[in-house]
Design brief:
about 290 residues; mainly alpha; 12 helices; globular
């Protein structure tokens, strides 16, 4: 039991780090903050990202001797594609703080909404944990929130709904690697349609291509596989609220690797987010025992 909890915690942490890394890669490619123009357009980034993920997972799957007991699903594949495309296009017109707020707010609503619709119930402790974590999350991104464009807001909301659905599809999967791989493989028709529709407008520099490949191969293909590994043991509420920590992880990464200053806002928001998550985790652990 303790070993399983440790593995699930480790998988969750690795997946959340991958999500934070993916946000950084997307921002560098699609919304550079140094005043330069983007190094790749949204369609090219999405296409290359998914193709890199497909290629990477095909290689990993070829070395896996365990028979693929799962073939993914068209629902999961479409949700994955909708998230990747919506996220890329929305990033062009939304600032970082607003994008994070809309995305993760949509994810919370989707996962909790599906859970409630399926007959799940949240205890007062869980609602309290969700509220504390979300308030801490809003407090963290508040300085970077601007008035969103209508198109960006809609696209990021749809991306959040799609990611929430993709996450829900991964709860309790028996073979995370196969499930993730075949979901990526099934995005090929959608990628083909996007390529055909945007062919004359595709534009990418070498830097943009490398960023898209890194996003697809590492933080997406590997990161999403690890996320599905974690989801085998995670309750939907924990899966939802834990993702609010992604901006915190990104900020901590900035402290470590870019020597960004530690602020009181970061400390307070981190305490609130982690405190809210811990409240839900401890409640779920106590309920299960």
């Amino acid at each position: 039991m303790q070993t399983q909890i440790f593995k699930t915690t480790l998988y969750t942490l690795f997946a959340l780090i991958a999500f934070a890394g993916n946000s950084v890669l997307c921002r560098l490619a699609l919304a550079p903050e140094d005043g330069n123009t983007q190094v790749i357009d949204a369609a090219s980034f999405t296409i290359i990202r998914l193709l890199a993920g497909i290629f990477t997972l095909a290689i990993i799957l070829s070395f896996n001797r365990k028979k693929a007991s799962s073939k993914g699903s068209w629902t999961g594949a479409f949700a994955l594609f909708a998230y990747a495309a919506g996220f890329s296009y929305a990033y062009i017109t939304l600032d970082t703080g607003t994008g994070a707020l809309v995305l993760f707010g949509s994810v919370q609503l989707t996962l909790i909404g599906i859970n409630l619709a399926k007959g799940g119930r949240l205890a007062m402790t869980e609602w309290s944990g969700l509220l504390i974590a979300f308030v801490g999350f809003v407090y963290l991104v508040l300085p970077n929130i601007g008035t969103p464009s209508i198109s960006g807001f809609i696209l990021m909301t749809l991306a959040g709904l799609a990611w929430g659905l993709y996450t829900y599809k991964g709860l309790g999967v028996s073979n995370p690697l196969a499930e993730t791989s075949f979901n990526f493989f099934r995005t090929l028709p959608f990628v083909a349609v996007l390529t055909a529709l945007t062919w004359t407008h595709l534009s990418a520099s070498t830097q943009g291509i490398l960023l898209a490949v890194a996003s697809g191969a590492i933080t997406s293909a590997v990161g999403y596989t690890i996320w599905y590994m974690a989801l085998r043991q995670l309750h939907p509420t924990i899966a939802a609220v834990s993702q609010l920590s992604v901006p915190v992880i990104a900020a901590i990464g900035g402290l470590i690797f870019v020597n960004e200053p530690m602020t009181s806002r970061l400390m307070i928001s981190t305490a609130m987010i982690l405190g809210g998550i811990a409240l839900i985790v401890f409640y779920r652990y106590k309920a299960a025992n």
